[in-house]
Protein: Cytochrome P450
Organism: Pyrocoelia pectoralis
Amino acid sequence: MVTFLTTCICLLVITIILCYFYLTRNFNYWKNQNVQCVKPIPLFGSLFSVIAQRKSINGYLNFLYKSTTLPYIGFFVIDQPSMLIRDPALIRRILVGDFDSFQNRNVLNNKYDKYGKNLLSLLKQPKWKEVRSNLTSAFSSRKLRHMVPLLVEVCDDMIHYIKTDCLNLESIDCKNISVNYEIDAISTCAFGIRTNSHENSEFATAAKNVLGTNLLRAFQMGAHFFAPLLVKIFRMKFCDPHSCLFLEKVLLKSMKERERLKIVRHDFLDLMKVIRAKNPQLFSRIVVYHEMVIGTFIQYLLGGLESSGSAMTYTIYELCMNPTIQTRLRNEILTVLAKHEIVTQETIQEMVYLDMVIKESLRKYPPLPFIDRACNTTYTIPNTDIVIKKGMPVFISLTALHHDENYFPNPMLFDPERFSSENKSSITPYTYMPFGDGYRNCLGIQFAILSVSLGLINLLSNFEVIPCKDTPSVISYERSSFLLTPLHNKIYVKFRSLND
Ligand code: HEM
């Protein structure tokens, strides 16, 4: 009995020692190359504060950025050496000049994940390039022109909802209104599905739950970035499968209906038919085609609803806290609208101050607060001996760059003048990138700006936004989210009719 117990203890000690050596095998990687780095802890790497939920991943990258003035700093994602790039010139190389060495994101693309495997943002080369070039034309200026009247209808739903349900409320969560508006905007413009998410629809709930709202979902998503082994072992999914299944059924029903009635809308679904006809070998099986369409539908919702919804929310919040800016913007909107019978893309382009306000809002609050790339070759940082090995992730903190006093003096001040025609040329390249940059930047930039602009035009020409008792004086953020999500995912304001 004693021998058995001794053997067990010995085996346990040996296992612990082996695990220790395995988990710490890379811990000298940066030290050996004389790169400043954060001291790692076995099992957590440098991410103890993130795993313990003391900091969000965005908060951690921000902290790393501020902890040095050097062009880069090393850290460890569990056992994997990783790097935060601070220097704009090196950022430019990674995103553009040396893109061939940084074509993929660090996030895992899991072949067992029916919905996740077709998300463009998760795809790896060479499939990524093929899909991206096919999808790019969905957002051409001609397509966007067709979308304006559809977006106007969706704005009408939002304004109607606020007028009938919100005006006598003391506080209204403008995040919920903005996200509902964006769900309707993406669904109608890209897929011809007319939803009214403000009316508490099942569709809106499923769309919001794709990313998930609870801690387990946050963990599963985070694991795709930081613990791919766990994803493989436990066959985790990037998106919530129940919500995806619901959305799949709605989409397939809408596709069948369009086939039956021979409806042509020149939207994303029609574009997918053209792509299929041009690439029969790619979509030889209907299941593959459907998976691709559904994957893209979910990608647009994922890419669009939280980020565009947040962009609109934070802009509303800043306008609420800065009444002078709000009045100036409303005056511009009303003056331009008075000159035109209908709103078109040209009408929106005349609203120069609106563009400045949105840009400043995306600076102060980049909805996707960091971007990442995985090195796909062995890369030596130019003019140094520092090697980034194949497979190593590099990160760029958008929040940290956007809030860097050296690039944006008095960074916490909401000042749209930074983007006036006189001032914008003095912004250092690669320090302002709310949509990322380079070949793998955001696919939906123009659509995002169009939908946020139209949403704000309609809100401000109907209502005044004022603070209420629940409006925070400074915004705090959720620590479990990798997006820039406000605390409890809510921001309260009050809407007052302009006719009062
Ligand atoms: C204000 C709103 C938005 C913001 C701030 C935003 C921001 C971003 C950022 C920072 C990235 C990563 C870029 C990089 O790694 O360099 C990204 C990627 C992406 N975004 Fe957006 N986005 C917005 C709206 C949208 C919309 C409306 C759509 C689609 C309808 C969309 C679709 C995508 C896709 C598909 C990708 C992945 C592109 C690829 O990997 O090739 N985004 N977005």
